Amino acid sequence: MTSNLVSFLSETAYYNGIFLRKVREGSTEVFVPDPFVYVTKKSEYLPTSLPVFYNPLMEINRDLSILAIRTYLDYLVNDSDRDIIYVEALAGTGIRGFRVINEVRKNNLYIILNDINPKATDLISYNIEKLNFPKDKITVLQYEANYLLLDLRKKKIVPDIIEIDPYGSPVSFLLNTMISVRGKLGLVLVTATDTAPLVGKFPSAALRKYGCRLIKSPFDREIAVRALFYALGREASIVSKRIIPLFGIFMHHFVKIAALISRGKKEADKFWRKIGWISFCPVCHDFSISFGLHRIPCLRCERDQREKEPLGPLWLGTIFNEEFCNNMLDVLGELDIERKNAEKIKRILEWELALSEQILFYDTHEIARRLKISPPAVNYVLEKLKSKGFMASRTHFNPRAVRTNATYKNIIELLVEIQKE
Questions:
Q1: Final residue of a domain: which of 324, 345, 370?
Q2: 388 C-beta neighbours (distance < 10 Å), count
Q3: Same domain for 229 and 376?
Q4: Is 231 left (phi over 0), alpha (psi -120 to 50) or beta?
Q5: With a threshold of 0.85, does the pTM exceed it?
Q6: Which of 47, 148, 303, 399 is deepest in the core (most CB within 10 A)?
Q7: CB of 111 within 8 A of CB of 98?
């Protein structure tokens, strides 16, 4: 356990029946329930064993929040004369919100930290008092998350940024998030930790929660991101709003997406132009793409004469907005983020921006296995593809894969050529 808790400090405290230990993330220090007291067995899941939910392994998720919010405020929000409101509807210890107020550093930024657990809100209030966080900029509430979002709407409080990061699926909070968030250039950040349905391990759960047919596939991590964007955009469309995806990342057993919001029926209709289906051959893994709910994807593989498996509906537009992600890279160097996390984020953004318009990828190791040849190094495959005039890049969704405009046939020919070398 200790090796995973490298950011826990030696300072401890005791408050309202909870043993606490100070933790540092970024440049922010906060008291959280002491895992050395509450977690005594390796088999215990740390976050749910604590009296208030806190997962140290999700630090990079919170780093992404800080980076996205700072980029959003620096490049997209020009209203310095009005208050900017950030809402974390399921705050837990509140560490993300404390990092936002401490590390984003905008004078007109105000945050609402909400959690239905009274121990959580007590701990948030304790940290505000103990560590001198600005009381005039932080509001602490104890509501069920959907109630909070609708209550803000009733009181005509319009959040510019809403963060949804539950334990499990975020789907039940998406509609009210869309109802509440600012319709003109609002920002929504959503995390899903129920990755098993999203990668197709439980198709019935995926259909029930996300409204998508998802089964295991060679591209399951990218499919998971596209399914979550579809679910978010569908809820936005119901209330005449549209999502504009900014980034979608799958790592450490979570999916995190960010989207800008625009409003209007015509805007909402634009979302559906980028919805469609992906079908893949379960034998050779070649795939085809079709846009439109009404367009049935190709269901027979010409190569293996096997029936293809359809996946969808899915968001088929770009999942890495080039302008926003390049701005994120510029901002990244200005933030105090743990070095390894910063390097991971930088690598992900650079890889995905290299060919952001290309949908899906080819697992060169898997194709080589089917051809019964030795798999070449991915970087060498990239070099050979580029030398032949194709576009190609790596992807964080699969470290053994290449994203390219080459066809499956081109990849096979290239791998055979490399083997002969």
A1: 324
A2: 13
A3: no
A4: alpha
A5: yes
A6: 148
A7: no
